Amino acid sequence: MKTQIQIEQQDNRTGDAALADQGFGRVARQNPPQFGGADVERIHEFFAENGFAVIGNCLSREELEHLNEFFERTQRERPEAWGLGGKRRVYHRSQGLMFSQPLLDYPELDAYTQHPGAYPAVCRLLGGVDKVRFSEFNFREAPPNAGRGRQNFHHDAVLPDRFTRQPYMPVDWLCAIHYLTDVEPGAPAFAVVPRSNCFATLREAYETLGEGYWETPIFGPAGTCILYDTATWHCRFDGDGKRQRRTWHQYYARGGWLPSSLPQTNRYKRPPSPCLTDWNLFPERLALHQDPAVRLFFSHWNTAQCEWVASGFSDAVRDTMPRGRQ
Questions:
Q1: Domain count, the chain
Q2: Is there a cis peptide before residue 185, judged by omega within 30 degrees of 0?
Q3: Is the pTM of this model over 0.85?
Q4: Tens digit of pLDDT for each residue in 191-229?
Q5: Which of 215, 256, 220, 217 is nearest to 239 (CA)?
Q6: SS (H, E, C) the chain
Q7: For position 152, which CATH number holds?
Q8: Which residues are CB-contacts of 174 (< 8 A; sequence separation ≥ 6)?
């Protein structure tokens, strides 16, 4: 049975002349359902239908305290890594503050890379624990009183076979966004268009889904986790420009080869997802970990990683990489 989002909604459309700054102005007024992290099959069912799912209470109070302390400590000790120094990085203008590669220098974060609050669901959505590959881990902040900012609806990395493959699942890439501060109305909230992951444009989703088209901001207390298919149209909705929001973003890719979805052929098999970026690096302690399962998790290497490994993890080579040192 298909799982639908049963929520009270308000239709703000009055034709194309009334388009909102972010999307088409048809905004859901009530949160989608939240699941427990152990409720893996219900998460999978909802996600497969809608392109996202929300897990409540994913982080403990101690973990939230640790991660928020990490923000404050590293912003104080390494302001350039956050874009707080004299040279503001262009690619952060729609993101707010961003620490792109904290894993490189902070082993204290390793325990979060397969966090038990969401990782069982991630494994199910990507086809099994042996299919999950690490892609990216970063921290972002919309500081207090930073202004409204702007981010339009977009999707992340996609593959063209998403339009035709049967079955659609497992996904190619998956992102987990954890709220590290409370996100209430007025704060900049992550927003998705449910069931939009098989549309090439937002307008196509708007016109095809019709009454099923909703731009859905997701509110929740610190510790809330949102899992979304990178092909799902999403954005950060503007808040009132005054409230702070801190988030941890982790991206996963699907590894391994899947059996053919085409009848009567053995020639086509669905390959692993390509690397999500050409710049993200994995530190030696993780890329060459003594545990084979950890090595497999961190085995999705791009060319930059290959060159860094070949150099013996040289600091000089790392310094030439985009965002390598920050």
A1: 1
A2: no
A3: yes
A4: 999 999 999 999 999 999 999 999 999 999 999 999 999
A5: 217
A6: CCCCCCCCECCCCCCHHHCCCCCCCCEECCCCCEECCCCHHHHHHHHHHHCEEEECCCCCHHHHHHHHHHHHHHHHHCHHHHCCCCCCCHHHCCCCEEECCHHHCCHHHHHHCCCCCCHHHHHHHCCCHHHEEEEEEEEEEECCCCCCCCCCCECCCCCHHHHCCCCCCCCCEEEEEEECCCECECECCEEECCCCCCCCCHHHHHHHHHHHCCEEEECECCCCEEEEECCCCEEECCCCCCCCEEEEEEEEEECCCECCCCCCCCCCCECCCCCCCCCCCCCHHHHCCCCHHHHHHCCCCCHHHHHHHHCCCCHHHHHHCCCCCC
A7: 2.60.120.620
A8: 122, 125, 126, 227, 228, 229, 230, 251, 252, 254
Instruction: Flag whether 104 is in a domain.
Output: yes
**156-163: average pLDDT:** 95
Q: Provide the pLDDT for residue 202.
A: 95
* Residue 151, in any domain of the structure: yes
Please determine, for residue 18, whether its predicted confidence score (pLDDT) is greater than 50: no
| Mean pLDDT across 179-198 | 96
Burial of 9 (0-12, 13-18, 19+ CB in 10 A): middle
The parent domain of residue 100 ranges over: 17-276
